[in-house]
Amino acid sequence: MTLIPPGADAIVVGSGPNGMAAAVRLAQAGHAVTVVEAQSTIGGAARSAQLTLPGFIHDVGAAILPLGAASPFFRHLPLARRGLEWVHPEAPLAHPLDEGPPAMLYRSVEATAAGLGADHNVYQRVMGPFARNWEAVSEELLAPFRISRHPLLMTRFVLYGLRPATHLAARFRTEQGRALIAGLAAHSFLPLDRRPSAAFALTLGMLAHGVGWPFPRGGTQCFTDALVSYFQSLGGQVIPNTTVRSLDDLPASRATLYDVTPRQMLCIANDRFPGSYRLQLDRYRYGPGVFKLDYALDGPIPWKAPECALAGTVHLGGTFEEVAESERAVWQGRVAERPFVLLAQQSLFDSTRAPDGKQTVWAYCHVPNGYTVDLTDRIEAQIERFAPGFRDRILARHVMSPADLQRRDANLVGGDINGGVQDLFQQYTRPTLRLEPYVTPLKGVYLCSSSTPPGGGVHGMCGYFAAQSALRRSL
């Protein structure tokens, strides 16, 4: 373990987006802050690497970052001056079908609605008010539970969102409209007949119109590097290759913030928490995992529907019913023969990702937590279904099972990239039911990971609010 020098007012354990957000907020307040990271590279699940062949840059974890662009904290930081450049594909999302044109999600609500035929009016009626007020809605959603500052707008969101996606999809008549809702809602990792899966569809659709679904030029690592550079400009220190296994591994400081999940926190605290708090952390529910593939290709994906080449992200799952079956299967401990696949093709819009004429592809499907079956063939069959000839363009592939993901980042327990189930109960009671969920019973010890509100995603707000708690109580 690397020696951690004493003298910091605050120490942050873990350099994922939430850990770095906490560190930046504390440094902005004038405090001396040290970040320690177990891995050799900074970023947690927000990293990039040459996973397949030399010259092919792949995002190890997070790839498409609408929440990073929309974050009430990150979007006000001077990250552009630190090298961050957002890439915006012409369309944030495409969802191809076996028959007929794909569902296309464009930045414009009107253009998206126009492609949905008979669902033109219903899409504008449902999504338009949220898209026009995306900043206000984002600030409400990306916060702990509190009295709403926009009660009328959020009442409308609750009426639509705190329902299963099946209810929202029932408003749509076309296969394209229903499929679009299915793919958006499936980001919740919930069965589509469970609350509040509709809220995820509304949120991601709203962000597509409000800020797009951009990604950093050069890879997600460039987002992290810009954040670290800004933190260091404030006097912050980052120490990699340093695993914290106990509270005693750290020098004395006024506040310590842990970007870890309940499982890691229990190990680090080593029975120092009161029994009731330990029990709540021990009962914390982790969600489904992911099985992830990265590809180096000898050319673009040969989509049957050419419109798919306009989108940075492509949802491969077919109809609403097929996507719903795929997500239901995961909660039943199995994977559908035709799993819902989330695919990103960043190199079509970012030439820094691959050598000339070549392409990279990032793809995953949802699986039961800790799933051990190799799903390469099923994922490739889904891609081939909508892009015949895809396999012929594969130069190399890199496979990451849930266990592989957890080895790269201990927070990804069983491959869970959301830091725990985000259902109606655990969304705002994560990791325990407390007025300030970031505060632990130990003086000066805080949790700042995605296992606290508002949950998963590269938005940094868990870290920001944990830092605010530390500033009020310890610094």
Can you characterise this structure?
By secondary structure, this protein is an alpha/beta fold. The model has no long low-confidence stretch (mean pLDDT 96). Helix 8 packs parallel to helix 13. The chain starts with 9 loop residues before the first strand and ends with a helix. A seven-stranded mixed sheet has the order 7-6-12-13-14-11-15, with helices on both faces. Strands 9-2-1-10-16 form a five-stranded parallel sheet, with helices on one face. Strands 3-4 form a two-stranded antiparallel sheet. The chain is 33% helix and 15% strand. It has two domains: 161 residues, 3-Layer(bba) Sandwich (FAD/NAD(P)-binding domain); 250 residues, Polyamine Oxidase, Chain A, domain 2, CATH 3.90.660. It contains 16 helices and 16 strands.
